[in-house]
């Protein structure tokens, strides 16, 4: 494998990986030292001074700039939310959709994206699901677009098999057909480079507890600031262009700012935002391209080792269509999950097998431990693994 960065040094920032073979970053990442220290700093400041509020808010804006840099966006196009689900719901309800309008989605995509739009059916909006295939691009959606189609919403990377869809071509299609385009980047952000402008996305939503290394409870929303017609479904004083200094609400003071702040409600998750700032510093130091390439190399190594065992892979094998860090092994989760846990290997059950999801801290030794565990359970002839593969193929 190529050495894209000092993996051993990065591992020192994640103490948990020395005690468990952690192959579950698609669920959540282990806490790193820089993020832990950011939380502790926040707690200590709150403990000692009851909170330097303006300092905390200043750090929030610094983190907003870092998020914007990561996404190739402007700071005023970034809002902080609770999680991916809230981001997708904000986006779905901001679109000016009416009875008879149609939204296209992908069958089997993450449910928290789908439900945000399925909830619009009560307004008469039609949700149409196109088939999920190994490759999804503009051509996949083209046959389903008609004069009633108003929007497309999809994931960049799938959580259950590691598809990496061609969101740029879909974004081009949306721009050509004047459609709104909403993208869930939760499974790719922090590992896969993301360019909001190249995607031509109207909204991009994500949480932060996977590739962005922060505990649950914080989300992000990118909004194309050129889409000034898009307004929030709910409002607070913090959402206004000019929040009332006397805290008295007035019907003639409801103008929205020309920033993504229109989608925020205030009372931010300040400790998590400070943690995110530290996480983005770590990601920036290592380099997002380096993280992606490292995970791709580990994925190639994983596929090679699985092929040696004649154990199948669910989802795409080609780098062009697969995420660098998400792989589903064709072993029944009901039979294998507890076994892996008992051997000190952390993975996740998924629809079609066992999901292995990589992080910046993983190395070939982690892959070897996983493969050795499979071999040990099935020695000498590996009948269980082979049976699982054949059942998938059949």
Automatic annotation (TrEMBL):
<dbReference type="InterPro" id="IPR015422">
    <property type="entry name" value="PyrdxlP-dep_Trfase_small"/>
</dbReference>
<feature type="domain" description="Aminotransferase class V">
    <location>
        <begin position="21"/>
        <end position="370"/>
    </location>
</feature>
<dbReference type="GO" id="GO:0016829">
    <property type="term" value="F:lyase activity"/>
</dbReference>
<protein>
    <submittedName>
        <fullName>Selenocysteine lyase/cysteine desulfurase</fullName>
    </submittedName>
</protein>
<dbReference type="InterPro" id="IPR000192">
    <property type="entry name" value="Aminotrans_V_dom"/>
</dbReference>
<dbReference type="InterPro" id="IPR015421">
    <property type="entry name" value="PyrdxlP-dep_Trfase_major"/>
</dbReference>
<keyword id="KW-0456">Lyase</keyword>
<dbReference type="InterPro" id="IPR015424">
    <property type="entry name" value="PyrdxlP-dep_Trfase"/>
</dbReference>
<dbReference type="Pfam" id="PF00266">
    <property type="entry name" value="Aminotran_5"/>
</dbReference>
<keyword id="KW-0663">Pyridoxal phosphate</keyword>
